[in-house]
Amino acid sequence: MWEIEELDVEPITTVIPWVNSSKSRLGFEWGPGDMLFYETVKGGGPKGKVCPLIHVVRKDEEMYSPILRKLFNESHHIFVGLQRSQEESASKPKTHQFVSISKNYRSVIRACIEELQHIAVSSAVSALTAQDYNQISILLAVELIWNLCEILFIEAAPAGTLLLHLLDWVQVHNAGVDDEAQELLHSEDPAQHPKFWDVVICYVLQGRIQEARQLLAKQATQKPAASSMFKTMDGLLKKMPVFNPSGNQTLTEFELKWGHWHEECNRHLEDSSFASNSNMETVCKILLGDKDTLLSQKKHLTNWYHFLVTQLLYTHPAVKPQDLQYYAQECMDMFLKNQIEPEPLDSILLAAFKFDILQVIKDCSIALNNWWFVAHLTDLLDHCRLLQSHNLHFGSNLREFLLLEYASGLFTHHSLWQLAVDYFDYCPEFGKAYLELHIERVSLDTERKALKVLRICEQRQMTEQVRSICKIMAKKSLHNNRLGSALSWSIRAKDAGFATLISDRFLEDYCSRGSFSDLELIDNLGTSMLLSDRLTFLGKYCEFHRLYGEKRFTEAAKLLLSLMTARLAPRSFWMTLLTDALPLLEQKKVIFSAEQTYELMQCLEELTSSDQNEHPSEQEDDIEITKVELLRLALARNLASAIVQEGSVNAF
Amino acid sequence: MFVARSIPADHKDLIHDVSYDFHGRRMATCSSDQSVKVWDKGENGEWHCTASWKTHSGSVWRVTWAHPEFGQVLASCSFDRTAAVWEEIVGESNDKQRGQSHWIKRTTLVDSRTSVTDVKFAPKHMGLMLTTCSADGVVRIYEAPDVMNLSQWSLQHEISCKLSCSCISWNPSSSRAHSPMLAVGSDDNNPNLVGKVHIYEYNENTRKYAKAETLSMVTDPVHDVAFAPNLGRSFHVLAVATKDVCIFNLVPLRKEPSSTSGPTKFDIQTVAQFEHHNSQVWRVSWNITSTLLASSGDDGCVRLWKANYMGNWKCTGILKGDGTPVNGTSNQHGMLTSPLGSANQTIQGSLNGTSASRYFFPPLEPPRAGSRWSSYAQLLPPPTLIEQTCDADTASHQLPHPRRRYTTRPLNPLPENEGD
């Protein structure tokens, strides 16, 4: 049953067209990257002709976007780099190393966003699909969240520095003001531009005081009457204390100085120094962090977290990390007061401000349904030892759980699966088991691909998978009548039975065609021919043919004989071997010695006596008998010449 | 998740089983029309039927592939009381030119006296072994001693379950620590005969299969059982399709030193029990790494179940028919005119990725005034992406309710007090 707290998250319904009614029964089958569905018992409706359909349901078409593929590739490098640096360095790594890794991840996201935007601008609208636009918006959100996590969790900036980072964060993600400023500055009279004050206020809201001052200076030159007011404002802006983390100033000194400045601003407001210019007064109120004024600038702030950071800048510039959550909740409530429920992004950012790392990861998993993001972020946070306290009784920890999910997704892709291997390598608990299950499913379409998969398995001592791949390839080659390939794969698989079988096929082929295919392969078997007796025989028999071809008759004859006397040759092949001996026996020069000839004769007799038990057809019998007669004659002649020659040699 | 394409299977009756081969490049279908069809996936992802032949003289219930180490081998079982083994051979050259492959029957297994309800190959480390179960309550294990000669099969074991058998599942674990093990389910509907799932284990000493355990808590008819891949765990996970979807952990108990010859006893823990189908469940099946379980019930739905990292199982996805009647005509080109409603839903599904196990991004941010990424969302072109032709008026494409778009959940909420 559903538990009450989880009612809010419902399963997603996918509708399959042309399936009749709720009474029908759906059959299904898991596939690589997809699922098949079919109606297996028809629901109501008229009985009659059926046209069964099989529906292919897919889940991850984004995987095929070429730009996201780049994201996966690049982040894979960073991921592997991080794992290796952890393995190599014995000492505890420094925070700045993690920050730089985090920045690398973010720059990969940025590069993707820029590439997508570039396509959007440079090409026809039709080139970008709705999904691409979605991807841009999602990547932007992901980068925003990641950046905040970097500041709060990884960099763990202390009071003072914290706000500087948050300001950067807001500036980077609300960069729209820069475009407007450019437009303004390129206009004929910037000071009279209708958006002049919008831009100034935006700059002030983002704490970009220098830019604001430069703009205000343009206005000041045009309004000499108000020059003292502009001078006062410029003075206030110029004097605004900014914490310098590398300086000698302590945080207390900074706060004291800032307090004085704040009072000075307040004095000017109460003096009505800016009363003559409502915009100047607004700027002054912003400098004082006046909530109502800030909230009236919603259109410039655009979101509650900008509001939060601006408010902190002008009220609590030395905010402590642990106090952030109170301000964040308050600012969000104030900013979104008409909204019944915050959007997922709001909840995620709020959880981050509350330093609730698990909530961030959980919410991201639900909202983004994006394993890439949660897997990489969680891995990095785990390396920063921020997840150590959460030992999970599932056995695997959260990091591994997410990495396994991400890598499993990669494995459904025809080329990205290679990246997944490294992710599995760094999952100590289930990584090996997952890799074994996934890699054996990679379809071995070509020899090249099979070799690639094989290398991965060999590097990891996955002996069973290595054997299985070789076996499959051997079987496939044999199926396609590619004996050479089948033989070399079965040698790799160390499959003696199969090697024997293929050797027999080679020998059969030889008997029917009188020549060997793949001679080069067999000639170069080396020690691998020892895998099976039959294979050894095949190798040796080919060697005999080579020697014979090279006219090294004595060696050839010796080898041929030994194949029979050592009982290496299958009995069924003896007649072929003896027939092969015929031309050697009939050479003018004596090749088989008398002793060797005796042995050949013995082999022939052994063969013919055992053959008598069998009853071949009469016609075959006739041919056999003729062959045997011929052999006997040749052997007798050779024996005679050998004895004569050996006798004459001995005589000397 | 979304329907990427629909393939007219061209069977003349209902399909009973569809089975992917080990690498997912081929599939086999079987039907009440007594035939089996083999389909091959082309470079472009299209499926082509490369063989279709009459296999039995009754409805074909199940079709299954042997591991590719044994070649291209299929087994089928049927109402005609037989199971059969088929092997693809290199056919005539003109067959190949027509893109057709040739399958020949290697054997017919005729030992059953009733309908053969399931057929499964044993895990490959056991060799080439085939298991059948039948309505007369007998599980039979056959072996091809010579893997190069599939016409010779010997009946190695006959296990009498005494209850009408509907399904079998081998434990895929190849660990030496576990003896070969299989689960058998019974669809006998006599509630007095308790325990509709039996676990049999091979005993090295007696060289026989002996009943190791009966899942006595399963008293209703069972239509499918499925062992999950072991993943190196010390226990086994079994899913059962009965009146609900059940997941059990089978934890081997330490054997008494004195009774080493007896079968392993298990502590059987119910991990999950879901009644969502509200009706008979017909199939259960795990994905490759058993992170997802799919189940099909008489409510016309397939449900996807997923465990979070705490091991808590939840329903994350539902797939069901759209309720449109099938009009009985199929287009030869596989392009079907979509009924209005379903096309809309399909497009929504594809654009918004409302799925339980899609890996990437459904739109996170609805357009919000002034926010930086809302400007892109406003540029959305009209959705025209779907492989099927669709006569639906594009104006009627409605965006789903914004809340619905965020309800995907690969990860379940973290219970605060879990495990205390």
TrEMBL record, chain B:
BP-aspect Gene Ontology terms: cell division; cellular response to amino acid starvation; chromosome segregation; positive regulation of TORC1 signaling; protein transport
Sequence similarity: Belongs to the WD repeat SEC13 family.
Record carries keyword Cell cycle: yes
Subcellular location field: Chromosome, Centromere, Kinetochore; Lysosome membrane; Nucleus, Nuclear pore complex
InterPro entries per UniProt: Sec13/Seh1_fam, WD40/YVTN_repeat-like_dom_sf, WD40_PAC1, WD40_repeat_dom_sf, WD40_rpt
Protein name: SEH1 protein
Job description of the protein: Component of the Nup107-160 subcomplex of the nuclear pore complex (NPC). The Nup107-160 subcomplex is required for the assembly of a functional NPC. The Nup107-160 subcomplex is also required for normal kinetochore microtubule attachment, mitotic progression and chromosome segregation. This subunit plays a role in recruitment of the Nup107-160 subcomplex to the kinetochore.
Keyword Cytoplasm: no
Disordered: annotated span: 396-420
WD repeats: 8-40, 274-306
Gene3D superfamilies (UniProt xref): YVTN repeat-like/Quinoprotein amine dehydrogenase
GO (cellular component) term, any one: Seh1-associated complex
GO molecular function: structural molecule activity
Keywords: Cell cycle, Cell division, Centromere, Chromosome partition, Kinetochore, Lysosome, Mitosis, mRNA transport, Nuclear pore complex, Nucleus, Protein transport, Repeat, Translocation, Transport, WD repeat
